[in-house]
Amino acid sequence: MERLQKYLSSCGVASRRKSEELIINGHVKVNNEIINELGYKVNEKDKVYVDDVLIKRSDKLYFLLYKPEKIICSVKDEKGRMTVIDLIDTEEKIFPVGRLDYDTSGLLLLTNDGELSNKLSHPSHHVEKTYSVKIDGIVSINDIRKLESGIILDGIKTKKAHAKIIKTDKKNNKTYIELTITEGRNHQVKKMIESINHKVLKLKRISYSFLNLKGLSIGEYRTLTIKEVKQLYNIANKK
């Protein structure tokens, strides 16, 4: 027996949280009966439908995408704009692990493995994410120390980070830094830079844990190797 939201997530319908929303909002049927109960459990003989479409388990897929700017990081967009899903050539239902802003480029994982996505996205798993940041103005060593020690955002202090100045362009009044964080709070990097009285001009995620963009041009993607998937599960299962 398996909880209904976990089953939907494992089938690649959506993340665990989104699957719970589908259940609560009456989109899910089990054996032709609408189920609104999050604790409801199903077995392998049950027939599960989402919006009257029969759901079946499919092979797990794992993609690493070099996301371009001005692409929506979502499964679909109500305004009809292009999403990251449109960039992946697959008929299976996949979804992004975490998010990148509309104007942010860089490394993004997409999968139909709801269990892995849920674990990696959970706040208890401090996955390192490194960003290349182009900043308006000259960033000082003192600013770097502030970023590393933690900054109060929305009343909560950020966890310790690692930051380093890559290049200072005094002629054009720009600074280029790399910033590594272990959280995924909304617009976190931009807000951290704003807290030291500067503005982010360009933002790119260049690594996610041990994964990087090597060999990919912007807009390109590749499938993860079995070894890489196992490494991600090892990270996700650490307490």
CATH architecture level-2 label of the largest domain: 2-Layer Sandwich
Quick one: how many beta strands? 17
Question: What is the C-alpha radius of gyration, as a whole number of Å?
Answer: 20 Å
Q: For the terminal residues, how far apart are their CA atoms?
A: 25 Å
The structure class reads alpha+beta
Share in helix = 10-25%
Report the major sheet.
9 strands, mixed
- CATH superfamily membership of the largest domain, which one? Pseudouridine synthase I, catalytic domain, N-terminal subdomain
Low-confidence stretches: none
- The number of distinct helices, counting runs of at least 4 residues, comes to 6
Q: Indicate the mean pLDDT.
A: 93
Return the CATH topology of the largest domain: Alpha-Beta Plaits
What does this structure look like?
- By secondary structure, this protein is of the alpha+beta class.
- It folds into 3 domains: 2-54, RNA-binding S4 domain (Structural Genomics Hypothetical 15.5 Kd Protein In mrcA-pckA Intergenic Region, Chain A, Roll), CATH 3.10.290; 62-124 and 213-236, Pseudouridine synthase I, catalytic domain, N-terminal subdomain (Alpha-Beta Plaits, 2-Layer Sandwich), CATH 3.30.70; 129-208, Alpha-Beta Plaits (2-Layer Sandwich), CATH 3.30.70.1560.
- 22% of the residues lie in helices and 30% in strands.
- The strands form 4 sheets. Strands 7, 8, 9, 10, 13, 14, 15, 16 and 17 form a 9-stranded mixed β-sheet that branches. A 4-stranded antiparallel β-sheet has the order 3-2-5-6. Strands 1-4 form a two-stranded antiparallel ribbon.
- α1 (4-10) packs across α2 (16-24).
- The longest helix has 11 residues, at 226-236.
- It is elongated.
- The mean pLDDT is 93.
